[in-house]
Design brief:
The protein has 368 residues and is α/β, with parallel strands linked by helices. The chain has 2 domains: 241 residues, 3-Layer(aba) Sandwich (Rossmann fold), CATH 3.40.50.300; 111 residues, CBS-domain. The chain contains 14 helices and 15 strands. Strands 6-7-8-3-9-10 form a 6-stranded mixed sheet, with helices on both faces. It has a 4-stranded antiparallel sheet with strand order 2-1-4-5, with helices on one face. A hairpin with a 2-residue loop joins strand 4 and strand 5. Helix 5 packs across helix 6. The mean pLDDT is 91. Bound molecules: adenosine-5'-triphosphate (ATP) and magnesium ion. The site of adenosine-5'-triphosphate (ATP) has 12 residues, from helix 1.
Length: 368
């Protein structure tokens, strides 16, 4: 079992002025290097949960351990310096420049000016922001730029743990998709332990190693990898949350390498026309892939064979598209429905032939 980086045990929070617990007996582990995404209806306790991890809110009962230490045994200010926090609504300081906002924690830690400036430039590059923005104020940036500055600020001192509360909430779908791709790229390199909140289930599916679907009082309805939540929603609440097109969403999470592919009709350019006809018949196809010593040269149709004594006299036609083992089944499905042959050909780097994927094979993954 991997190491638990953040561990919550029977954690509850009752605010003084309300009868119901905002968080009611929540237990959950987040392992080192994983991204856990919390989703759930407004007011279900997501932000409260995050704030208890960095002690912006004190739990009424229960225990929270971060990196092996009970958070109550740490000075809250020290604790927060070690945890990157992107707050809901970004929260940049309006009267400070972007550079100064990013440098908040490094300054508190007493870094010298040269080190702060180097780090700021590094972060700006990582998040694809223009250095010209550094001298501006938050109100002079677009929503998407502000969100990136929020992420840069949280990353400034390279903390191992990040809490991100709807960090991409305020931007349009295109910018959002770009920020998500950037997030995945950065996370691949930095391998942080991340708790991420979103209202967007597709964002959760894309970014999470595991998704926690929460109900009122932060009660866990299901806590599992996206693929499992889509394949087997634990109950009606989860099913409603996941929404329509569950099967198609799942295809985007499965790689071609994870399923058994078929061999498909194959001939060598040195085979006879009779061999080619036989191979097509065997598979019930009207075309055959031409593979020379493992290398995919293209395909030949039944009609190309007419009046030709040998396959070597026929130039194979290139496939308009093929997929690799790293492609998702969603991509393979696109390739199938847009190809004349209604089949996706799978090839490895250097055009090494691997096999074919049919619609029937993929639909089995949708229903299973
Ligand atoms: N300081 C507070 N005092 C009293 N009640 C609070 C306080 N902060 C939050 N609450 C209540 O606790 C519950 C959980 O709030 P929380 O902010 O954690 O929800 P959330 O899941 O983050 O919601 P959203 O998706 O809208 O951001 C809500 O009912 C909220 O009204
Ligand atoms: Mg919230």
């Amino acid at each position: 079992m991997a190491d638990s980086m953040i561990s919550l045990r029977n954690v509850s929070k009752r605010f003084a002025n309300s009868t119901d617990a905002a968080v009611d007996d929540l237990s959950m582990d987040v392992y080192a290097g994983e991204t856990v995404v919390l989703v759930g209806p407004s007011g279900c306790g997501k932000t409260t949960t995050m704030k208890m991890i960095n002690r912006l809110v004190e739990p009424t009962s229960g225990t929270i351990v971060v990196d092996g230490t009970d958070v109550r045994k740490q000075d809250p200010v020290e604790l927060r310096r070690g945890i990157g926090y992107v707050i809901q609504s970004i929260g940049l300081m309006p009267h400070r420049t972007i550079a100064s906002n990013i440098a908040t924690v490094p300054k508190l830690l007493g870094w010298d000016a040269a080190r702060i400036s180097d780090r700021t430039r590094e972060l700006i590059a990582m998040l694809d922001l223009d250095p010209g923005l550094l001298a501006r104020y938050p109100s002079e940036l677009s929503g998407g730029q502000r969100q990136r500055v929020g992420v840069a600020r949280a990353l400034a001192t390279d903390p191992p743990v990040m809490l991100m509360d709807e960090p991409f909430g305020a931007v349009d779908p295109i910018v959002r998709a770009r920020l998500q791709d950037q997030f995945l790229e950065i996370q691949k390199k930095l391998n942080k332990t991340i708790v991420f909140v979103t209202h967007d289930i597709d964002e959760a599916i894309k970014l999470a190693d595991r998704i926690a679907i929460l109900n009122t009082g932060a009660s866990i309805e299901q806590f599992a990898p996206p693929e499992e939540i889509l394949r087997e929603p634990a109950n009606d609440f989860v099913e409603r949350f996941v929404g329509a097109e569950r099967g198609l969403k799942r295809l985007a999470l499965i790689k071609v390498s994870e399923i058994q592919i078929e061999q498909g009709p194959v001939c060598s350019p040195r085979d006879s026309v009779a061999d080619a006809n036989e191979e097509m018949e065997r598979f019930g196809f009207d075309w055959v892939s031409i593979v020379d010593d493992g290398e995919l040269l293209g395909w030949i149709g039944q009609r190309d064979l007419e009046g030709r004594p040998r396959l070597t006299d026929i130039t194979p036609r290139p496939f308009s598209a093929y997929v690799t083992k790293e492609s998702t089944l969603r991509h393979a499905l696109d390739s199938i429905v847009s190809s004349r042959t209604q089949v996706a050909v799978v090839a490895e780097e250097g055009q090494r032939y691997a096999g074919i994927l049919t619609l029937e094979r993929i639909s089995r993954e949708i229903v299973s």
